[in-house]
Design goal:
Helices cover about 5% and strands about 60% of the residues. It has 6 helices and 44 strands. The strands form 9 sheets. It has a 22-stranded antiparallel beta barrel. The protein starts with a strand and ends with a strand.
Length: about 675
């Protein structure tokens, strides 16, 4: 895992239009520079000239760790906490530096992938492609991206045919009747055209997720993508991307069962075996873009148009339900570069337009189609002096059709000393617009909407130091961060005098919430070994309306009260260690992965759907895998996950998988 820090000027349009250039630039720059989509200009920025925090996981690292589910490798990123509701295919959420799951923006192949209805991306639907790359940009980034980028931005990119030409086939099987496969074809035709076609599949019978249950919870996931680039002139390029994903997953209903645990005197709702309970999540994604450079690349213009189309269906004991959502997104940015070899300047202006259409398809809910529109205007500037000092700033105004306008900004700085010591810092603001469910409700008579909601807001800083040693073969670093939230959206109970019952509704919580922490990391490339380690401490207090005492003797309704403690599903301590051994004299690669997740809190619910708080124990997972090349074209591999057979839960009442083993073969030519 290459860990570094990337300036705030990061990713969106230029990332869409220029992501295909990454490998080519990386090949030119060599090991001294990790090329990332570090600005909306699409320019490759050296990691030692970047002020914000970013982690880059390249294709080789994912191959060494035999990554099949993308969210698994994200557990190795500093500041990131992952929760999956049971088996593969279950709802999988990512939280960065204590932010909520819907406060992280996700791009896949340059396309904004967050579900237009739910307001967040479900990583349970993303299986890894045969050649890909991940960037995790941390900290408030709304000054470039607008809503959602409070915790940070995750970018997942399949490599183009120019970046990784060739053909490959992979097939593997193992525990829980699991089969996984992948295929890729990529290459360059002439000097102007390159292509990459990729498909991946993952199927498993799963295991009993419900405590005390016997029903296996499995899933089927399919992903396919196509990426085409045409460069008719050296200063002009057209890009087209298409992507399809489909996940069928078994589910468990939640009820109070005879085996339900007792929390504060209440029997609580738990997952139970529910034959026939399934979900289907389908996504279509598309993008077209053009970039053209003028005056020897001093002026670059880029334009893209993208669409995200999601549909989710559920079949269960209460009948069919679901939702649909579609996002249209258009972007234009223009970048001017000027200066000298001593001082280099870059100035970018950008405009974004986004339209979201969504509706609930559940029979007992509001099924009207609703629309949200946003127009964003961005200005950013950065300067580098002698390739040692880098300063950056950006500002953005978002014009919403349902909320007041929002203004966000960010500033970054990085300075590299001659001895390899680098200091960096950043300060910025972020916003998160209310989700469709919070605005319009999603269950008639139980959860109603609130059109008066305001966007959530955040501001914060980070500062750190990084030291490289032994000609950059060893890097150690630490970053401290601190952020403040206001207008956080929470759920409360409202008494409906007409029905005489309590219903749930979202509202903006008054007051402020502060979160802080430290990220520490180290990496080494010594002889035949590649070592990566990270540790995150997070202090994330959260006030939650929940039941505080035991159940009353007469069974009457208890009104929740504010309770403050560590935020839900954010452990205070998370650590990761990866050691890869790849001797040059033998075609063997072996990797040991150790991941620790500390104690955390979660929700429990009683029969009135009132919230209670429960503790989940800490756990450590150990994985081991190895691969061996038979000649130039055939590779055999195998891995064991949860080697120690740890029993644990990431989400309350959902058992996580036990020990599992897999093996397979890959053919490359």
């Amino acid at each position: 895992m290459k860990t570094g820090y990337i300036s705030l000027l990061a990713i969106v349009i230029a990332g869409q239009a220029h992501a295909e250039d990454i490998a080519a630039a990386d090949a030119v720059s060599g090991d001294d520079v990790v090329v990332v989509t570090a600005s909306r200009s699409g320019d490759a920025i050296p990691l030692d000239l970047i002020g914000s925090s970013v982690t880059v996981i390249d294709d080789q690292e994912m191959q060494d760790r035999q990554t099949r589910i993308v969210s698994d490798v994200l557990r190795d990123v500093p500041g990131v906490a992952i929760t999956r509701s049971g088996a593969v295919g279950g709802l999988t959420e990512i939280r960065i530096r204590g932010s909520e799951a819907n406060q992280t923006l996700v791009f896949i192949d340059g396309i904004k992938a967050d579900d237009p209805y739910s307001g967040q991306y479900d990583f349970g639907t993303l299986i890894n492609d045969e050649a890909s790359r991940i960037e995790v940009l941390r900290g408030q980034q709304s000054s470039l991206y607008g809503s959602d980028a409070i915790g940070g931005v995750v970018t997942y990119t399949t490599l183009s045919g120019r970046e990784k030409p060739g053909y490959s086939l992979r097939a593997e099987g193992g525990s829980m009747a699991t089969f996984s496969g992948g295929a890729r074809a990529g290459g360059v035709v002439g000097d102007q055209f390159d292509y990459a076609l990729t498909t991946s599949y993952y199927r498993t019978d799963g295991y009993p997720v419900a405590p005390g249950g016997k029903l296996d919870i499995g899933s089927d996931s399919l992903g396919a993508s196509a990426k085409l680039n045409w460069t008719p002139a050296t200063n002009f390029k057209l890009t087209a991307v298409g992507r399809y994903s489909l996940t069928h997953a078994d589910l468990n209903d939640q009820q109070i069962a005879p085996t339900s645990p007792i929390v504060q005197g209440y029997p609580v709702i738990t997952a139970i075996d529910t034959p026939g309970d399934r979900t289907r999540n389908r996504g279509w994604y598309g993008l077209v873009g053009a970039t053209w450079n003028l005056f020897d690349d001093a002026w670059t213009n880029a334009a893209t148009a993208a669409i995200t189309d999601n549909k989710r269906d559920y079949d269960g004991p209460y009948g069919p339900s679901g939702d649909v959502g579609r996002r249209y997104r258009a972007n234009f940015d223009s970048t001017v570069r000027f200066g000298s070899d001593h001082v280099k300047n870059r100035f970018t202006l950008a405009m974004d337009y986004e339209r979201q259409e969504f509706r609930n398809t559940t029979a007992y809910a509001d099924r009207d189609t609703h629309v949200l529109e946003t127009r964003g205007y961005v200005a950013s500037y950065d300067v580098t002096v002698d390739d040692r000092l880098a300063l950056g700033a950006s500002a953005r105004i978002d014009d919403y059709n349902r909320f007041r306008d929002a203004a966000t900004y960010r500033a970054t700085a990085s300075y590299l000393l001659p001895g390899g010591t680098r200091f960096h810092a950043a300060y910025g603001t972020g916003i998160k617009a209310p989700t469709p469910g919070e605005l319009f409700g999603y269950t008639s008579g139980l959860y109603i909407g609130n059109l008066a909601l305001r966007p959530e807001e955040s501001k914060g800083w980070e500062a750190g130091v990084e030291q490289s040693l032994l000609d950059k073969s060893v890097t150690i670093g630490a970053t401290s961060f601190n952020k403040l939230f206001t207008d956080q959206i929470d759920t409360t109970y409202v008494y409906d005098s007409g029905s005489g019952t309590y219903i749930q509704q979202s509202y903006n919580r008054s007051g402020r919430t502060r979160q802080e922490g430290v990220e520490v990391y180290a990496s080494a490339r010594v002889s035949d070994f590649r070592l990566d380690a990270s540790y995150t401490y997070l202090n994330a207090p959260q006030t939650i309306d929940a039941l505080a005492g035991p159940a009353p003797g007469d069974g009457s309704f208890q009104f929740p009260v504010p309770i403050t403690g560590q935020a839900i599903r954010r452990p205070k301590d998370v650590a990761s260690f990866n050691a890869t051994y790849a001797p040059k004299a033998v075609p063997l690669t072996a990797t040991l992965t150790v991941r620790y997740t500390g104690r955390q809190r979660d929700y429990a619910f009683n029969s009135d759907y009132s919230r209670l708080l429960v503790d989940l124990k800490a756990y450590t997972l150990v994985n081991f895998n190895a691969s061996y090349d038979i000649g130039a074209h055939v590779q055999v591999f195998g891995r064991v996950e949860n080697l120690l057979g740890q029993k644990y839960q990431e989400v309350f009442t959902y058992n996580a998988p036990g020990r599992a083993a897999y093996g397979g073969v890959r053919v490359k030519f």
